[in-house]
Amino acid sequence: MTKPPKQLTMITDLGESKLIERLTKDFEIHHKTTTLSIGDDAAVIDFDSDCSVISTDLLIDGIHFNLDYTHLKQLGYKSVIVNISDIYAMNAIPKYILVSIAVSNRFSVESLEQLYQGIQLACKNYHIELIGGDTSSNHRGLQISITAIGSSKKEKIVKRSGASKGDLLVVSGDLGAACLGLLVLERENQRISKNANYQPKFEPYRYFVGRQIKPEASKSTVQILEENDIVPTSMIDISDGLSTELSHLSQASNVGFKILENKIPVHSNLIEFSSEFKLNYLDLVFNGGEDYELLFTIKQKDLPIIASIPTLSVIGGTVHHGNKNLLIKEDGTELEIKPSGWDGFKDLTKSHIQTHHDDESTNES
Amino acid sequence: MTKPPKQLTMITDLGESKLIERLTKDFEIHHKTTTLSIGDDAAVIDFDSDCSVISTDLLIDGIHFNLDYTHLKQLGYKSVIVNISDIYAMNAIPKYILVSIAVSNRFSVESLEQLYQGIQLACKNYHIELIGGDTSSNHRGLQISITAIGSSKKEKIVKRSGASKGDLLVVSGDLGAACLGLLVLERENQRISKNANYQPKFEPYRYFVGRQIKPEASKSTVQILEENDIVPTSMIDISDGLSTELSHLSQASNVGFKILENKIPVHSNLIEFSSEFKLNYLDLVFNGGEDYELLFTIKQKDLPIIASIPTLSVIGGTVHHGNKNLLIKEDGTELEIKPSGWDGFKDLTKSHIQTHHDDESTNES
User: Fold this and answer.
1) What residue of B is the nearest CA neighbor of A82?
2) CB pair distance less than 8 Å for B345 and A35
3) N vs C: which end of chain A shows fewer Cβ within 10 Å?
4) Under DSSP, is residue B113 helix (H, G, I), strand (E, B) or coil?
5) Does ipTM exceed 0.90?
6) For A169-184, what is the mean pLDDT?
7) Which residues contact B264 (CB under 8 A, 6 or more apart)?
8) pTM to 2 decimals?
9) Please, are residues B255 and B164 in contact by the beta-carbon 8 Å criterion?
């Protein structure tokens, strides 16, 4: 990030109060539960008899996003999505966010306005209010911390721990696309840094790049469940790859899962494009992450309705008590799925699907 | 921060899930309103008919704290205090926190455990539960983001905007001490960096240094108000210095204040020690910040009770409609108090109390 030209406003010219005022002036209040919003020591919400559902996430440049190719408006949008996805994963409706940013003084006020335009667009699309936050200078780069607050009737809350034997495993949307988008962005970015005249090629990958830079949370899934009066037995959002999320459900519920490879929903070009990166598409599905789809279990009685919904795929089910999760290939081969999705503290270069050599769980299918 | 010796555990050795598990294993659940705590996509709280009161803060090394002389346990403690002080400032009771940290891989797990020990101690002392958070690596240093959630009956919530003409202005504790503590810490730290054999002198300043490194939130004030069935007309916590907080109350309530200099509660050594730094003690009171005392207005009918409480001081009152705030010196001189407390984006080296040359507001006293 170079120092902005003179016509841009430096953060130091405004000061914290005026900066917050300018960044948040166009945000709207939607909810009758909002008792007090931005401008006091704290925000006040009155959910009456509903539960509050609360989640928080950090996003840090160079770790969670790359400012070389991430537009600040898209980043603002995505920051909100990442967070509210956790609220949907509880079968709750996100209503509020608090946004804190720590930012180098080299960012202009105008660039931060773009960030907040993205946040505002997500608020608009998902009917969410910005009710607070904090703003600080930082030595370098940009860090975003978002807390999302949703609400739900207590009896509708879905935890990770409710799956039991015989339940079916369902996933929304398609998997692996956001990770492929990231690979494309990184490849094109490297090519540009080697050759300033290089024209990046995004056209055939548009869908995948879009899933990476402007993801959506699976609001529609929660709406479908509500409309059909289905409460999943367990649920999680797929932020770190299917292998990790599956292991979370598995451990919390103390069940094992079998997934049928040919039932996993993927975009028709995923297999072909994965091979460009010398990857099996399953690497992207299991270890990619950032899909922000919902992974959940249902009772078998709910299968007819779920199976009739085009955006949902039944990909397997619980098969035995225990935490071992298996992938069944088309030829009947069973592979053990190891939990090894994204970890902010580790480099992920290895493949995490290993051939299953243990006979124990094949007996329990 | 140097690379820790071999016997310490590196964050990368543990990975994110195990790190969170280790840092949060000793935290307790206190509240019957806790429906779901750490370990799922989001936490769930059921406040029933009470309102949720929510605030968030960022703390960044080199900006909000200096790791040269800040012990991580004290930092953890202070991070919680800073946040829950905002909840008390709404006349609410803090109940929950979510803690996110972004940290360089050079921090050991053991040093982060110290940070969390401080967080845990604050949780214990203030009867608060840790219900969530996020953990990420970062390029350098340490950033802490805390969201605090409290509850209150709707009719007990106190905003900044409720003060009206004739109300009295009250402050808890004493002011300016934390800033003096910071000056001492910075001075001694500079002396050490110039001379490694230098023995820092903290003894006469123990109280002031303590207010800086291990502040407390004014829980007792909120309890006193509750016990005496007094609801302030407006309230704010003093995080950025009296001048800024006064201006917030003044602008939100559209009233002006007069403060009597000789009523401002300060520690008996503040004036003497301020002069060591060639500062007037009023600079520390008005522009210092980090006192985390409560500043509030009451109806005159509540004066007898408030005046009888040793930890509270009536320092002035509202005098006219408008936003001009005056300091009345013992000799009757009036000085206008300009709002210029701490701003994360600006260097603060100037004094912010200016002699008042405008006759307008003196007519309205």
Assistant:
1) B41
2) no
3) C
4) helix
5) no
6) 96
7) B171, B175, B242, B285, B313, B315
8) 0.88
9) yes
